[in-house]
Amino acid sequence: MIRGVRGAITVDRNEEQHIIEATEKLLVNMIEENEIEPENVASVFISVTDDINSVFPAKALRKFNGWTYVPVMCMQEIPVPNSLKFCIRIMIHLNTELAQQDIRHAYLEKAIALRPDLKETQQ
Predict the structure, then answer these.
(1) pLDDT (tens digit, 9 = 90+) per residue, 19-78?
(2) CATH code at 25?
(3) What is the C-alpha separation between 115 and 111, in angstroms, rounded?
(4) Count of domains in the chain?
(5) Which residue in 6, 39, 87, 97 is the catalytic one?
(6) Which end of the chain has the lower number of beta carbons within 10 A, N or C?
(7) Among 3, 24, 33, 74, the one annotated catalytic
(8) What's the DSSP call for residue 112?
(9) Coil, strand, or helix at residue 74?
(10) Between β-strands 2-10 and 87-95, what pairing exists: parallel, antiparallel or unpaired?
(11) Among its keywords, does the record have Amino-acid biosynthesis (predicted)?
(12) Do 86 and 60 touch, CB atoms closer than 8 A?
C-alpha cells in the first residue's frame, strides 16, 4: 500500500540557512516518527509559500544517507489570501503496511495551525 505522510513547518525569514534547517527538522521528525526507510519511499513532494524562494528545500533531503535516488519535487503553494506565510509542506509517498490512522503526520512551529486536530497525536 502506498500512503502519504504529511508535514509542515514555518520559518521566520526567506534565508537559505533557515529554510534548510527547518526542512531538516521536519524531515527528521517525519522519518523517525514513521520509521521510514528510503528504499520504501516512492517520492517526496515539497511545497513552499510564495514568500520562500532563496533555496530549494529539497537540498536538505540530499544530506540524508540513503536518500540519493529518492525522487523529490519542489513546487509553490497556491497563494490563498490570508493563508499561513513562510510555510514549507512535505508529502512523502511511502510503501507501508501501516493503516491510515497509524501514520504520524508532523506539523511544527506555526504550521500546527494547519491541522490543529492532529496536535494531540504529535505529542
Answers:
(1) 999 999 999 999 999 999 999 999 999 999 999 999 999 999 998 999 999 999 999 999
(2) 3.30.1330.40
(3) 8
(4) 1
(5) 6
(6) C
(7) 74
(8) G
(9) strand
(10) antiparallel
(11) yes
(12) no
Closest by CA to 3, choosing from 107, 121, 90, 93, is: 93
Domain with 64, as residue range(s), is 2-122
CA distance readout (Å), 42 to 4, 5, 94, 106, 113: 10, 12, 6, 19, 28
77 assigned to active site: yes
Is 115 one of the annotated active-site residues of the chain? yes
Confirm whether 13 is a catalytic residue.
Answer: no
Is pLDDT above 50 for 123? no
Which of 3, 6, 4 is CA-nearest to residue 105?
Answer: 6
Q: Is 74 among the residues known to form the active site? A: yes
pTM score over 0.90? yes
Tell me whether residue 69 is annotated as binding: no
87 is catalytic: no
Q: Based on the residue annotation, tell me whether 69 is a catalytic residue of this protein.
A: no
Phi, psi of 13 (to 5 degrees): -155, 165
Give the distance between the most distant pair of CA atoms in the chain: 38
Which listed residue (21, 24, 33, 77) is catalytic?
77
- Is 3 known as a binding-site position? no
